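It would be a great kindness if you could assist me with a short task in structural biology. The matter concerns a single protein, recorded as an amino acid sequence and a row of C-alpha cells. The record follows directly beneath this note:
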Amino acid sequence: MKGLTGKRSRPATVDPQQRLATAQYLATFLPELVRLADAAGMDLVAYLLEMARVEAAAEAGTLPARR
C-alpha cells in the first residue's frame, strides 16, 4: 500500500521495539494535539486525533482497562 507521498507506507518488516517506542511517543504527544484542536474549535480534527491517541495507547499497552 502506498502512503501519502506515493512511497510504501511502511517497511516490509517492522522492528517490534521501534513499533512500541513509536506507540509510546504518540500516546504521550497526541493529547497535546487533541487539546490544541479542541481549543481551536476543530471538533472533527480533535476527535480523529483522540482516536489516534486511543489506538497508540492500546499499541503501547498504556490504555486503561475497561470496566
